[in-house]
Amino acid sequence: MIEIIPSLYILEGKCVKGENDNEQVYDESPLIIAERFQEHGLEKLHLVDLDGANVGEVVNYHLLEVITEHTNLSVDFGGGINTDGDISKCFEFGAKRVHISSMAVKDRQFFASCIISYGRSKMILSADVINGKISIAGRHHDTKIDMMEHIDYFYTRGLLYLKCADITRDGTLVGPYFEMYKDILKNFPDIRLYASGGVRNLDDIKRLEDIGVYGVIIRKALYEGKITLTDIERFIAQPA
Question: I want to staple 7 with a disulfide (CB 3.0 to 4.6 A). Which of 46, 142, 223, 233 is the partner?
């Protein structure tokens, strides 16, 4: 069954709606929200340190530690990770995996070496895409790097996990870019692909599952009640 992973964006210790929006989603702390996810049967969490992404170094280690110490959620963590020390510290504070975007563009050889040194099960390539090209630096800097070429570089060097988001759909509730995900899986059939951006409802999630997507990261649909935690709990409980 496809993995359903809720996303938390952290800015100044609060959960926010998006990368350029500091409107608080919940009055509760990130820990309370994470605990609620766990209560409804979710097992994983996508945690993004926007403060870290903004300054170029991880800031919210303490929230990562609090969540991993007080829940059983498997957390993938990213935002501001640029050095080997950053990666080591993320694992030290409880991350199960780290997702890397900018650093994988700025220093390809280093990220490829991390796949080997830390293990392919611990590293996620985060590819934010616009018009088939990679975007980095918190999605504020578009590159001329072709998405497929970028993925292929790391795929041939052992990459297992890929998170891919079409920036034009992120936070829009217009539906995922299904054709892009089909193309990725056609070219890289063994990759474990996480889809992100545009998810509106459970039908979208079922369709992603049907085309072979390994997991889906949801945010806006969850926070705006298009998909409820009870919906997810029932979906998870369905026979495989």
Answer: 46
